[in-house]
Amino acid sequence: IPVLSFILFAVVIPILETRLLARLFDFITQTFNIAYNRLSLTLGAVFVFLAGVFTYFHLKVRGIDNNIDLLLTFFFGILTLLLFVKFKETESATEFHIGWNGYAILAG
What we know:
- By secondary structure, this protein is mainly alpha-helical.
- The chain is 81% helix and 0% strand.
- The protein is built from 4 helices and no strands.
- It has helices spanning 2-31, 41-60, 67-87, 91-107.
- Helix 1 (2-31) packs antiparallel against helix 2, helix 2 crosses helix 3 (67-87) and helix 3 packs antiparallel against helix 4 (91-107).
């Protein structure tokens, strides 16, 4: 059913993925005592690592095998993490993810 599929892939899954990414970010920054009140090389390494994990997940689970789509997924992960740091919450990143996925589904 197209409407339910759209709701699942454009709303439900982005909410779950964004929350998981936020939890991983919090876990890593708290475990290794990495401050994220300002950008640093250590925080950049966390961004690259988590964006890589996010991209790998989309490669394996979603089956994305187009290099351009994988590169965009990596940059999307970086932007999501920047939203976490800038606003200190997940709502803006979740809305960004919903909009991104919704557009991707509608655009084909």
